[in-house]
Amino acid sequence: MTKNQNRGRNPQPWSVTDIPDQRGRTAVVTGASSGLGLATVEALAGAGAHVVLAVRDTGRGESAAATVNGSVEVRRLDLADLSSIREFAAAWEGGLDLLVNNAGVMNIPEARTKDGFEMQFGTNHLGHFALTNLLLPYLTDRVVTLSSTGHRAPGNPRIRFDNLDLAGEYRPMAAYSQSKLANLLFTLELQRRLTAAGSPVRALAAHPGLAATGLQSNDASLLRGLVLRLGNRLVAQDSRAGALPTLYAAVQDLPGASFVGPDGMFEMRGAPTLVGRSPAAGDPAAARRLWTVSEELTAVTFPEPATSVRG
To answer: Which of 38, 84, 136, 261 shows a CA-CA span of 20 to 30 A to 77?
Structure first.
């Protein structure tokens, strides 16, 4: 029984000091040069793991890595470019215990990835979809994908299969909500496929609550960006606290397809715990349909998962 499942007996919330010994384990963290990603790297490396910072800007990545105590390395990965994702995966050798799909963009002006996808859906979902499936033959433990309470945004968001790029009707928050909903549906269908394949690998999702990071700095709305930055100062957790749900999902013995977030009011802050999701995020038919569409768009398919890769 974990600490925050037994609050009556032990009032101490779960923290990085509760991470089991990670020596001998290898992890990849995307978007690891700052914010939640860097905090995740710090905690995993501090517990003994070898952590690969998968970043678009290797200069920033090297600067971030220099601040981490532990075994780390930097490799280039641009999630908005399928060729970069393929190069990253093709260069991988040996086993991989943990993949943390942390990188993302939020509420940005309308833009396209190198392959022509709407930037938020393309980066937050399709990029991680391709990366996960390409690395799956090496994975031996779990995949943790970051979603958001934004998947429950007003208006009952669903995947716009008729217009995934929201062409002609783009709204930054709607695009972000769709991408975060996609993250949860991806986790659901990935776990179903892993179970059907008899793989021990687990797929989980997490969200940080309201965390003070640089994610809001490119908001398409100056007013909304100002409000979010004010919220960062007055209400939000810092990045280390915001990373706790990710770390909890990465190391605790949880069921596949679990969703972890803060236990406080409106899940904005607090200790990590299992949280709920919208009905749309638990729809297995939508999850299967999204998977099929994602395979068609990326030309990446579900492979045979690893069972005991080491090297």
So the answer is: 261
Q: What are phi and psi of 27, to 5 degrees?
A: -130, 150
Alpha-carbon distance of 229 to 274, in angstroms, equals: 27
How much is the pLDDT for 2?
47
> Does an H or E element contain 73, and which?
strand 71-76
Residue ranges in the chain modelled with pLDDT below 50: 1-10, 216, 220, 224, 231, 234, 308-311
Distance CA 185, CA 158 (A): 11
Full DSSP string of 103-171: ----SPPS-B-TTS-BHHIIIIIIIHHHHHHHHGGGEEEEEEEE--GGGG-TT-----TT-TT-TTS--
In whole angstroms, how large is the CA radius of gyration of the chain? 18
H/E segment holding residue 273: strand 272-274
List all residues 6 or more positions away from 92 whose beta carbon is below 8 Å from its beta carbon.
135, 138
Query: Which residues belong to the active site?
Result: 176
From CA 30, how far away is CA 12, in angstroms rounded? 30
**The dihedral of CA 219, 221, 225, 231: what is its sign?**
negative
Q: Which two tokens stand for residue 199?
A: 């793989």
pTM of the prediction? 0.89
Bridge partners (DSSP) of residue 259 are: 205
Report the pLDDT value the prediction gives residue 1, as an integer from 0 to 100: 42
Cα distances from 146 to residues 12, 37, 246, 280, 307, in angstroms, run: 25, 10, 7, 17, 24
The predicted pLDDT at position 210 comes to 79
- Angstrom distance (rounded) from CA 92 to CA 134: 10
